[in-house]
Amino acid sequence: MQRIAHRALAIATSAVLVTALAACGSDEGGPAGGNVPGVTDTEILVGTHMPLTGPASAGYSKIAPATKAYFDHVNANGGVHGRKINYKIMDDGYNPATTQQVVRELVLQDKVFAILNGLGTPPHSGVLDFLNNSKVPDLFVASGSRAWNAPTRYPYTFGFNTDYTVEGKILATYIKSNLAGQKVCFFGQGDDFGEDSLAGVEQVLGASTVAVKKTYVTSNTNVAPQLGELKAGGCQVVVLATVPGFTSLAIGTAARLGFKPTWLVSGVGGDYPTLAAQLGENKGLLEGMLGVNYLPSAAASDDQWTALFRKINDERNGGAAFDGNIVYGMAVGYLFVQALLAAGKNLTRQGLIDAIERGGFKGPGLAPLRFSKENHSGYGGMRMIKVEQGKQDYFGPTYETDSAGGPVNEYPEAPPAPPANGIPTS
Amino acid sequence: MTTSQLRARLSMPGPMRYANPLIRSTLLRHLLFAVVAGAGLFALTGALGPFRNYQLATVAAYLCATAGLTVLTGLNGQLSLGHGALMATGAYTVALTQNALADTGRVSGGYLLLSLALGVLVTVVAGTVIGAAAARLRGPYLAGVTLAVAVVVPALTTTFRGVFNSEQGLSVYLAPAPESLGLYFPYERWQAWIAIIGALLTLLLLGNLIHSRFGRHLRAVRDDEVAARLAGIHVGRTQVLAFVVSAGCAGLGGGLLAVLAQSVSPGAFSLTLSLYLLMAIVIGGLGSLAGALWGALLLVALPALTSTITDLADPSAAVAQRLDGNLSLAIFGVTLIVVVIAAPGGVQGLLRRVGRFVGARWRVPTGR
């Protein structure tokens, strides 16, 4: 009996001891004295989450490596304020649950300075609160959801893409003046992406004019029922708010059903080389496909920005097949370097946020970047783009508008020429 | 106590090992174990960094589900491919309840308890329905029904978009850690505490349950239904109860996952998760709660290990892209095959064998 009492006493004592030990354990996290996570005198550690595998990886898996290649180019030329950029890419397979894990690993374990260009509306929505509660700069999200533009609620988050409502308005403006009288329908992703896009289309055309509206989810790759309904509805023009895998799926499935409307595709799902690679020998189906974009065309041979990015791609990215995703990834890298330069030599998280809010960045984009204290959305406009004879190129003017009820205006200013070495100076 | 006395006592079955009637009581013994484990883990959360705490919390959340599944599959012999969906039921209930509470201004941390309880309750109801159907089915047919559950539940979220917000999922409102813990208390440690308490409670209840008469019924039904029936055990009722208990545990695990991620989405509870859970308990060691712990550890450690391996190997960008998402599944599969061939008792069975081997060695020189 006594022995038991002794043993119980011993256990209790050790339990109390370990508990006490824990209580005096390190409770850091207070205001650190000038120690910025991820930043040393020689390095800036930045992370991202991307679908390198899974249903949305088609095309998108090339974005982060392209950004990394651009950083390698900058690093080889001395870095930013003497610091080299180390870009850590994590695969989340477009699955919000995995995004949770990898972003926490980046922030809590690797202690990155910022998250750059995290991709996808559903995956990124899940980490929005976490990043802002942890006060981690959440820069240039790769998605046009309007959710990223909420400076009071999410002060650390900034968008990059032209938002989907602006995009919808510009696509609808084209329909209004060029395809008037035709039956307009809509096929979009069943989340903010599809909803915001449809809202833009309906703002310009009127809600009753979109005859058939259908949605899909990325976990179900059978879209035949929806396209069957679009066909049965007699649609002549279909606006697609789809990721690349589902653009090619929709166009391919429609062709199988003998349904050939005029397609108007969202910028995030309308890159010709990506779609052509997926459709293979059926890439002829893409002929005449309309779309919108706001970055230099990958096919333009006379564009100086395209030439610059192509050169860096050949030198630093193993000469990966050059397409809109590479241009996109490098444009993100360019903007991030601009932001770092604007933040100055004494890099802090708040300093970076303040620098971006001061705005005034000019780069490869055709439309203006709208960053300010009140506005955290990215590009504010787009230009129509069309596939002709296997080549996707721009036509007509660049348009600019807001995501509310504002008018759609032409934006006359052309992007500046790139710096000679491809690295921004201020 | 001399060694021979000790040896004699160790060879006694179960609780008779312990002389003291207090320790002989299963409940008290388990309670003591839980308190000691709790204190140890509490100390551990203080020593670990935020990300390790987050991982620890994830292990604890998975442990609730794997422990429940162990009772169902390991002890009662019913196969379930739908436990991921039951976790989703718990997670979505917690998300909806938390958000509804926050909408009415009830935001203090105490309400989380209510949400988690409701999550378990709703999952128990779902488990009763599925369990009632499952009790009439055997082998592949049972697997088929639970497989259907695993497929249907995530699909419901896209069908009823207004409530569940489709694939984008819901964010979960959570109160910050109590102010009394200090201004800079790491939120992940707070989450770890919540999850660990949940897991310890689950283990405590299940531990007692499987040592009770009901536990013996479970095993009797698993081993021979006819014999069990002859012994006066109501086979159907036992099976339904096993399913209900197991579902409740999965519901708690799912609810805790929702608390950890602060968001729920169907992607988090896909069919793959159900398969992972089953693989985890088989690798961990079917039929003991310790096996469930190994399984839960593996569920968190393997994907992390995979990305480390990919990093170390430093393959070309194209190869890395192919490997990253798929490698963890492949490694899990290979591990499963190796374990089933080399150590049919799983990790826990292997450890027990090693323990017995070492014990036998140790006995030789000291034996008289």
What does this protein structure show overall?
Chain A: This is ABC-type branched-subunit amino acid transport system substrate-binding protein. Chain A: Keywords: Signal. Chain A: InterPro entries: Leu-bd (IPR028081), Peripla_BP_I (IPR028082). Chain A: Belongs to the leucine-binding protein family. Chain A: Pfam families: Peripla_BP_6. The complex is a heterodimer of chains A (426) and B (368). Chain A has 426 residues and is of the alpha/beta class. Chain A has two domains: 203 residues, Response regulator (Rossmann fold), CATH 3.40.50.2300; 129 residues, Rossmann fold. Chain A has twelve helices and 13 strands. An eight-stranded mixed beta sheet of chain A has the order 7-6-8-9-10-11-12-13, with helices on both faces. In chain A, strand 3, helix 4 and strand 4 form a beta-alpha-beta unit. The relative contact order of chain A is 0.13. About 4% of the residues of chain A have low confidence. By secondary structure, chain B is an all-alpha fold. Chain B has a domain of 237 residues. In chain B, 77% of the residues lie in helices and 1% in strands. In chain B, strands 1-2 form a two-stranded antiparallel ribbon. In chain B, helix 4 runs parallel beside helix 9, helix 4 packs across helix 13 and helix 4 packs across helix 14. At the A-B interface, helix 1, helix 3 and helix 4 of A face helix 3, helix 4, helix 14 and helix 15 of B.
Kindly list the characteristics that best describe this protein.
heterodimer, A: 426 residues, alpha/beta, Rossmann fold, 8-stranded mixed beta sheet, 17% strand, B: 368 residues, two-stranded antiparallel sheet, 16 helices, 2 strands
C-alpha Rg of chain B (nearest Å): 22 Å
Biggest sheet details of chain B: 2 strands, antiparallel
Shape of chain A: globular
Mean pLDDT of chain A: 89
Which structural class do you get from the secondary structure elements of chain A?
alpha/beta
Task: Find the CATH topology of the largest domain in chain A.
Answer: Rossmann fold
- Whole-Å distance between the termini of chain B? 15 Å
Biggest interface, chains and residues, is: A-B, 54 and 59 residues
The biggest sheet of chain A, with number of strands, parallel, antiparallel or mixed sense and barrel status, is: 8 strands, mixed
**CA-based gyration radius of chain A:** 24 Å
CATH class of the largest domain in chain A: Alpha Beta
Overall pLDDT level of chain B: 85
Subcellular location (chain B): Cell membrane
GO molecular function, one term (chain B): branched-chain amino acid transmembrane transporter activity
Pfam families (chain B): BPD_transp_2
Protein name (chain B): Branched-chain amino acid transport system permease protein
